[in-house]
């Protein structure tokens, strides 16, 4: 683990991938998944597989991994700034972000499922079932549940977001509370298969990409949900953040619902 680096110029802009580097991803995946094979199975690594692969994808040089900065440990620190791989629970990043964003450019990488196949592990035998595809297909809108947890940081000029949607296999333990042992089960690990899409947010204006191009000039959360093909609850959450970062404005109410317009 490295010690605190020299401070970067706060105006330095981190490099943003303009395309999916499939070769680099396959190299990172083989490096980590190869350890699984050598160690005879999933769950033998000290960190979860998605996190480990994405860390090596964004920074192959392990000398730049796990760097101590101001009492915290950054997943990656290199010439681009700090890169944090966060697979869930963004609320746990608040204290770290409060410190890091005052000093360095910070990129949060959020690996998300695009298509997902589920495999079940028997607790007693360790045997794994055949994989089955989950019916849901995810989108970048699903990231807003986590983004809401760090809402107060989203307008910070030092913050960048990479939403990385990927096909993945999810391994779950058969340790749930119902007859099938699937309800309330524990997610054991996830293995990324392929990156399908990377959504970049470098500045508040980039949230405009989440507004459906064919939406009416004025719209409610219900109309936004229909245009974006998401649930109304998700639409409310998305619009809450779009309003906060300033890309939409509230211009009235229709019953109990706010009416929105895109900010000029």
Task: Tell me the total number of β-strands.
Answer: 10
- Describe the sheet with the most strands: 7 strands, mixed
Give the CA-based shape. globular
Summing up helix and strand content along with how strands pair, one would put the structural category as alpha+beta
Overall pLDDT: 86
Order of helices and strands: HHEEEHEEHEEEHHEE
Report how far the terminal alpha carbons are from each other.
Answer: 47 Å
Domain count: the total is 2
Q: Would you write up a description of this structure?
A:
- By secondary structure, the protein is of the alpha+beta class.
- The chain folds into two domains: 22-202, no CATH class; 211-264, Orthogonal Bundle (Arc Repressor Mutant, subunit A), CATH 1.10.10.10.
- Helix content is 23%, strand content 31%.
- The protein contains six helices and ten strands; from the N terminus they run H-H-E-E-E-H-E-E-H-E-E-E-H-H-E-E.
- It has helices spanning 22-38, 49-58, 94-100, 144-147, 221-228, 232-245, and strands at residues 65-69, 72-78, 81-85, 106-121, 132-133, 159-173, 186-201, 218-219, 248-254, 257-262.
- The strands form two sheets. Strands 1, 2, 3, 4, 5, 6 and 7 form a seven-stranded mixed β-sheet that branches. A three-stranded antiparallel β-sheet has the order 8-10-9.
- A hairpin with a 2-residue loop joins strand 9 and strand 10 (257-262).
- It starts with 21 loop residues before the first helix and ends with a strand.
- Pfam families: DUF8091 (PF26351).
- This is DUF8091 domain-containing protein.
- Residues 48-201 form the DUF8091 domain.
């Amino acid at each position: 683990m490295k010690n605190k680096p020299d401070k970067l110029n706060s105006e330095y802009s981190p490099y943003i991938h303009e395309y999916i580097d499939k070769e680099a991803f396959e190299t990172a995946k083989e490096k980590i998944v190869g350890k699984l094979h050598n160690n005879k199975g999933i769950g033998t690594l000290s960190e979860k597989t998605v996190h480990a692969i994405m860390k090596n994808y964004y920074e192959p040089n392990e000398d730049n991994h796990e760097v101590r900065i101001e009492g915290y440990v950054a997943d990656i620190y290199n010439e681009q700034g700090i890169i944090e791989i966060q697979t869930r629970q963004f609320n746990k990043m608040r204290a770290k972000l409060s410190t890091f964003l005052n000093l360095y450019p910070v990129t949060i990488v959020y690996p998300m499922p695009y298509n997902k196949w589920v495999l079940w592990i028997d607790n007693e035998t360790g045997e794994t079932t055949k994989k089955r595809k989950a019916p849901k297909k995810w989108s970048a809108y699903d990231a807003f549940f986590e983004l809401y947890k760090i809402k107060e940081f989203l307008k910070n000029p030092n913050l960048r977001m990479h939403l990385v949607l990927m096909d993945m296999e999810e391994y779950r333990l058969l340790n749930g509370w119902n007859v099938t042992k699937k309800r309330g089960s524990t997610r054991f690990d996830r293995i990324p298969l392929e990156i399908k899409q990377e959504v970049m947010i470098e500045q508040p204006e980039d949230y405009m990409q989440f507004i459906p191009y064919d939406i009416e000039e004025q719209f409610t959360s219900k109309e936004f949900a229909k245009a974006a093909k998401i649930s109304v609850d998700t639409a409310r959450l998305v619009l809450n953040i779009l309003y906060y970062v300033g890309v939409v404005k509230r211009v009235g109410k229709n019953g109990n619902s706010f009416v929105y317009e895109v900010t000029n």
